[in-house]
Specification:
Chain lengths: 235, 301, 235, 301
């Protein structure tokens, strides 16, 4: 489903965010991506979404080398990947309902389907009451849940979630996790970057650990174990 | 088909919605567009009026005078008349007797008229025909056809003055077109800049749409619609301001100064159609093109 | 230090975010503010910062009723309150260094002090390497740490931190917590809204629990216990 | 004192930095400012030139002619001359004999000069003085002082024409001021709108600064500096465009059409100072005021 072959990413300012990443994720897997702050988790998700270009290597999504895809085709690739962004990225001038509906409208979904499905997903993330609020009228956790709702509305084959529970209380976070497991059970491949030790530890899924832009561990049924080899002094 | 239609419908919805939700920026942007077009309108009126004035002045010289020899018979006179009338563009031909001519001189000269005292008895002025032509350019032919004809002593028209006036009119027309051209260019520039500022302030939004998988056309659509609507509203406002403002001014001038200025000024009616057309074309065109161009940069993600 | 007397907040769209809050926090206290997503934690911090106006009640900061303070004086009040915002709020056109230095510049600090203190604080949050990066060149956790650095640079008497560890891995989160405890030890009053159950449970500090805009629990040496009385159905 | 100075220094630093870091928006905003001022410049030149032309024309009529009685002695003539010279604004006084007058008539009349044949022997024209005045407004006094004087038959000047011309000149001046006033207003409006768009796109930044505890003045400072710099750059660019553009045009006209137009056109030198002053005032003024006004809304948090 997702395959990275010796992928490296160096940003314009010279920061080497990822070095020589080799990775294969099969269809239907649920993978946690862990690593300390700045390890390269978000960079990895950005590469899969083609938000950033790889510096070296290739990324295959469904047998298609997305590093070679012409600009024109990118939107169609992105539609196969639902994304929960770390910084939410909600459209400020659209209500919660419209933000979620937007993802359906761009693929030309039938209005009837939109009217049926959006409220369903909103109630799934417990935001029915906020349907007509604008993003800046929401709490942090509510915004995050809108972003989650938008990412799953189209039943994408791949779901990438970048710290989808960072702003949620544990209870709500577990609700979301249950929903993700459910979606995963119906065939969606899920890659989730997270810092939530509890969640990673209790889910017993594949865990990929990044450190300084390299994969230092990749375990089936793994746990959240971070060794920070070369930390600077602690206070 | 149905899919495309749904997408199109959704684009339109987004366009109108976007305009409404961004109305505070929209107001600033529409105001700038109107303001630029109002300037353009004022200049257009100014230049057209100057042009009008010059053209008007040239028509005061649109006559040819044919001086006749003394004591010629009616046959010859008829022949002259007929020859004159055969020319293209001749409007009227009027006989002016030598007495009438002297009287006219007297009127023209005003205070110096006493110089003409005593000429009545032995009036040295000839009889003449005054031939009015539709437009000054027809005069040359009339002159040529009559020169050398039996009974014609001299054909005269104010060639020099007319040539000079026509030249001035030409330069004013060219200069006017140049100035208006510059202005249109500058207006286009300002409007597209304004649209650019509006679009730039929403680049984040555009980015988000891209990352969610919207195609460039889908993202562009609502912005183009917004741009066109801004342009349209801006031009309608400016048309109203220019048209009614000028109508008011025109009335004022007509009432207060009678004919003194009125003849110089182009009438509001005459410009309404042009202004409507030009303004709408600029407003809508730049609204659309400006949006497309300014978005280009942000769509490459 | 901080005193709220029957404070209520109703947003313009009719959402009642806080109802009848009475609360007193003394100088030098360390208080956790917990509660499920949308409970009103951020709203409470926004009221103390006068980012939002109270609908009813009064808020005293250092004996001063800030709900009565004229607009002109607000900046000077805010300078006594360091804030880590849930959404970071970094100035996009300033580097990390400049963002942190900005808080010192506005109070007219001496350039020498700025040049000495900013690198110190940046190394405290482990961001020395990123001093000349712009916010959009940082990872989520790095941005959050810049926001933390900025909030403490002026040694404010009060520090309000709205989920300051939401985007940090546990290791880094604990580094930050140690730093906060240290600051607290030197006399700064700290109010921290958080979802980090581990942290709250192991720190044994005062915990105030909000639910639907009301304080439902206020315990010294408390723990993270959330009862969600009227949840909607879970999946 | 030291504290205030440090804060001021930091404000300036932020202003320059902000301008540089927001340069893509800045370019659009500077371009709009320049464009508006270029329009203003073109119109200014147009109106000043028209005014110039009219004023120039009036000076062609700035003379008073005093017709003398026949056969008056030198004493009387000297007295008339002296009386005339005593008036304010008199530039020169020239004697024109009756023979000279007839000759002039002949020249003026051109083709109709034969009408004057035979007048030489009994020339009915009087001797006269032609008095040139500095400006037309002085003519009235000269006329009054000479009327009824011994030896003066009649004092004549083209009152009607002059009055008409002066009136036209007045109207053009008033009209010009009105149009330029409108233009200045519209320019101010567009520029402040542009600044507003620029500021609006950074409202989030302003908010953040407020929440971190910056005072309104501290936040405003850099924006005002930015606005002023944008305005200044915009006006300098437009001054260059207008001045050199017009100089080029002026040269072209002078070389190609000689005096025909050159007399109408105001010289580039004449306008340079005005334009520099007006443009800088507008650019900088609006840059500053526009920033302040457009920020007002965002500072209330
Ligand atoms: N646009 C960018 N330009 C330059 N450097 C960047 C950019 N984005 C990220 N980086 C750098 O790349 C490294 C990896 O960043 P990334 O966002 O992938 O980290 P992360 O693992 O998601 O961290 P976090 O848990 O804090 O979100 C960091 O050092 C960061 O500063
Ligand atoms: N500007 C606003 N306008 C209207 N309603 C708002 C606004 N800001 C917040 N709210 C609402 O007020 C309630 C409390 O929001 P608040 O941000 O205080 O929650 P929170 O406890 O910080 O939640 P989280 O843990 O998700 O950040 C929520 O229901 C939210 O939707
Ligand atoms: Mg990240
Ligand atoms: Mg919150």
């Amino acid at each position: 489903m997702i395959k990275l072959i010796s992928v490296s990413k160096e940003y314009d300012n010279g920061v080497k965010a990822l070095s020589d990443i080799n990775l294969e994720i099969s269809k239907g897997e649920f993978v946690f991506l862990v690593g300390s702050s700045g390890a390269g988790k978000s960079t990895l998700t950005k590469l899969i979404l083609k938000e950033e270009e790889v510096s070296e290597g290739s990324i295959y999504l469904n047998e298609l080398d997305i590093t070679e895809v012409p600009n024109r085709r990118i939107p169609y690739i992105r539609r196969n990947v639902g994304v929960v962004f770390q910084d939410f990225r909600l459209l400020p001038n659209k209500t919660v309902y419209e933000n979620v509906a937007f993802a359906m409208e761009i693929v030309g979904a039938h209005p009837k389907d939109i009217r049926r499905r959006v409220p369903m997903i909103l109630s799934l993330v417990n935001l029915s009451r906020k349907a007509s609020s604008f993003p800046d009228q929401l709490s942090g956790g509510e915004q995050q849940r809108v972003s989650i709702a938008r990412s799953i509305i189209n039943n994408p084959p791949v779901l990438i979630a970048d710290e989808p529970t960072g702003n949620l209380d544990p209870e709500t976070a577990w609700d979301i996790m249950r929903a993700l497991v459910d979606i995963n059970g119906r065939g969606t491949t899920i890659v989730m970057a997270t810092h939530a030790r509890d969640i990673v530890n209790s889910m017993k899924k594949r865990v990929i650990t990044l450190e300084n832009g390299r994969i230092i561990r990749d375990e089936q049924k793994g746990g959240y174990e971070l060794e920070v080899p070369n930390t600077e002094k602690h206070i | 088909m149905n899919l495309k239609f749904r997408i199109l419908k959704s684009i339109f919805k987004q366009g109108f919605q976007g305009m409404w939700r961004n109305r505070s920026m929209g107001v600033a942007s529409v105001a700038s567009i109107s303001a630029v077009l109002v300037i353009l309108g004022i200049i257009l009126i100014l230049i057209l009026s100057i042009n009008n004035f010059v053209m008007d002045t040239t028509t005061k010289f649109d006559e040819v005078q044919v001086f006749l020899e003394n004591d010629i018979d009616d046959g010859i006179m008829t022949k002259i008349e007929k020859t004159a009338m055969k020319n293209k563009g001749v409007v009227s031909i009027i006989f002016e007797s030598k007495d009438q001519a002297l009287e006219n001189f007297r009127k023209d000269w005003g205070e110096e008229a006493y110089l003409l005292d005593g000429l009545e008895k032995n009036n040295p002025l000839p009889n003449s025909y005054i031939i009015k032509v539709e437009e000054i350019k027809y005069a040359e032919n009339v002159v040529n056809s009559l020169k050398g004809l039996d009974g014609v002593e001299k054909v005269q028209y104010d060639k020099e003055v007319i040539d000079k006036l026509l030249m001035i009119a030409d330069y004013i027309r060219v200069g006017g077109i140049v100035i208006i051209g510059i202005l249109v260019f500058v207006s286009v520039f300002i409007i597209s800049n304004t649209i650019k500022l509006t679009v730039t302030s929403r680049r984040r939004e555009i980015n988000i749409m891209k990352y969610v998988g919207a195609t460039n056309n889908y993202i562009r659509g609502p912005f183009i619609i917004e741009g066109v609507l801004f342009g349209l509203i801006g031009s309608i406002i400016s048309i109203f301001i220019v048209y009614f403002g000028y109508e008011y001014f025109f009335k004022l001038v007509n009432e207060q100064f009678y004919s003194l200025f009125a003849v110089f000024l182009i009438t509001p009616k005459m410009i309404f159609k042009d202004i409507t057309f030009i303004f709408c074309a600029i407003g809508i065109g730049i609204g659309a093109v400006g949006s497309i161009v300014s978005m280009k940069r942000f769509l490459d993600v």
